[in-house]
Amino acid sequence: MQRPFLDGYAYNDRKTFVVKCMLSQYLQKLLGKHPAKTKPIIDAERFDTLKSRLQKELFQPFDESKAFFPEEAALIKSIRTETAALNRNNITRTQAYLAFYNRNPEVHWAFLAHMVSRNGGYHMTDLKSSNMTHLLDRAERQKFFLFLERANSAIFADAFPQLLLYEHSKQKELPLRRYLPVFRISRFMAPIWESFIEEPHSPLLTTALIINEQRMLQERILKRTRHGEILRRLDFQLRLHESDLSLCKQAKRTSFLDRTYRRTLCRPETAH
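Predicted structure:
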């Protein structure tokens, strides 16, 4: 079965790379070598400012106003419609992330999301191929597949409206704080986006979106559904580790992400 989005990489070469990376990380742990130190994402002054904004966000009253002018309501409807259409499957999500990044290259997270979504597509394709039939029965493969689909779909449904709101704010000033609750987006992101609009800082926005989406998955998918059971399985952990290593390889081969962020993404694991 053909593997989509492989960019010409041979499947066996990819497996060889994974094995080499796993051996390298094992030797680093065995020899007690620690990863090289990286620079902080933001300086102390900006950190204090952002911390103050986040603390203020937690204590201020939550605005539950749902009254919008016709133009605002039309924007909300447009974003919901576009998000739903592009969230049809993993292929449309992967393409949507990349298209957004090409229009807004300052939002590095969109390119990272494209790589993660594409990498998820590899595994979803594997699960539907004949190569997996001797490892997992049909029910088990379907369970893994549905978990990957639901997790990636949930991330897209939460993150893509944020990206579209930001894109609209570049054309016309928008009070993002007013729109975020409509799409059930965490209040944590309001100060982050406001800070980014005032003074763009790609690594900070990327880190914040990663934190936000991880917490969203934990609260909405892993705690409220039975998908959390999959994460404790050994076979899933092995596939997940391979996925992380493959993502690291892709990040090293691209010139889109800045050097500091690549070092953060691909640094060796700290020995435990």
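Summary: The chain has twelve helices and no strands.
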